[in-house]
Amino acid sequence: MNRQIVKLFAFIVVLFGVLVGFTSYWSVFDAKALKQKEANKRPLLEQQQIRRGRILAADGTVIAKSVAKGHGDSLRFVRRYPHGSLYGHPIGYSFVRQGDSEFEQFHNAQLIGEESEFGSILDELTGRNREGNDIVTNIDPAAQRVALSDLEEQGFGAVVAIVPSTGEIKVMASNKSYNPNLVPYRLSKMNTNNVETPLLNRATQGLYPPGSTFKVVTAAAGLESGVITPETTIDAPGTIIDEGHELNNDFDKDWGSIPLDTALTNSVNTWFGQLGQKVGQDGLFETMQKFGFNSTPAIDLPADEVEKSGVYGENRELLTKDDPVDLARMAIGQERLLATPLQIAEVAAAVANHGKLMKPQIWNRVVDSDGRVVDRLDPSVYSQPVSAKTAEQLTTAMEGVVNEGTGTNAEIPGVPVAGKTGTAETPGNAACGGGLEENQAWFMGFAPANEPKIAIAATVECTEQFGNDVAAPIFRNVAETILNGE
Question: Whole-model pTM?
Answer without folding.
Answer: 0.88
